[in-house]
Amino acid sequence: MTRLPFQLELRPPFLIVRFDAEQRILGWSLTKPGFAMARDVVWLEVRDADLGPHVDPVDFMRAKLSAQGLDDAAAFMTAREIARHHVAQSRIGRAVVTCVTTVGLTNGERVGERRQSHDCVAGTINTLVHISHALSPGAFVESVSIATQARTAAIMDTNKLRDTLAITGTGTDCIIVAAPEVGPPETCAGLHTELGEAIGAAVYDATYAGAAAWSAELKQKRATVKRELPSSSH
User: Fold this and answer.
1) Where, if anywhere, are coiled coils annotated (predicted)?
2) pTM of the predicted model over 0.85
3) CATH fold group of domain 7-224
């Protein structure tokens, strides 16, 4: 992995990615959905108790950000421990793509088969994809598509690690693609391009690592609970 194109700071309950200069972003974060500009991308770790039925999650998020001087950040919200984030980088030709993600799968869904009820706490996959050079609007959209494919492929490839129905993601996944505005923009990011390959590799590797770690932790927790259950007497 080459030098990261940003500073990465763990400041609980925040994980903060800070660029040297503002980046053009596209995604569907709580605070900056769609096309926007941002220097900081932030994950906020929350617990179920933080978000009761009468709490507006956007207002809650903005208040937390403001208290830390991060009012202008693009922000994710996650129940995953932010210390358990994963970073991967891919260089193909001149394209360097860096992915930071947190992966929790308790809120798992299969595309086209929405569950009607959720019996477990929220979990989500929050993904930042940074691309080393400028993108046209169309290439931004295509990059989000490639990142989504890579995330889904990684989750499907780790389904075998879990004793649950196969899922393709969670109901609250979020992706942000970021790129600088300096220089001529890349106009294509399809699977057949160097950029598309680099996006896919970085997102796949980070997501697979996160999903595998989450699955291993879940199995360990279940094994611990099973050992602690009182033995039945006959």
Assistant:
1) none
2) yes
3) L-amino peptidase D-ALA esterase/amidase (3.60.70)
Place of tokens 């889904």: 152
Cβ neighbours, 10 Å, residue 68 = 14
* Tokens 């959905």 -> residue: 33
One pLDDT digit (tens) per residue for the chain, 234 residues? 778 999 999 999 999 999 999 999 999 999 999 999 999 999 999 987 888 888 999 999 999 999 999 999 999 999 999 999 999 999 999 999 999 999 999 888 888 877 665 544 457 999 999 999 999 999 999 999 999 999 999 999 998 887 767 888 888 899 999 999 999 999 999 999 999 999 999 999 999 999 999 999 988 887 777 677 776 544
Joined together, the tokens standing for residue 140 give 């931004």
Phi, psi for residue 169 in degrees, rounded to 5: 170, -160
Residue 123 is encoded by which pair of tokens? 């979990």
Give the ranges where the chain is alpha helix by DSSP (H): 57-67, 137-157, 194-228
Angle at 199 between CA 84 and CA 135, to 5 degrees: 120
Pair 147, 129: CB distance under 8 Å: yes
Q: If DSSP codes are grouped into helix, strand and coil, which group holds residue 48?
A: helix
Q: Is the separation of the CB atoms in 58 and 50 below 8 Å?
A: no
Domain assignments of the chain as residue spans, ordered by start:
7-224
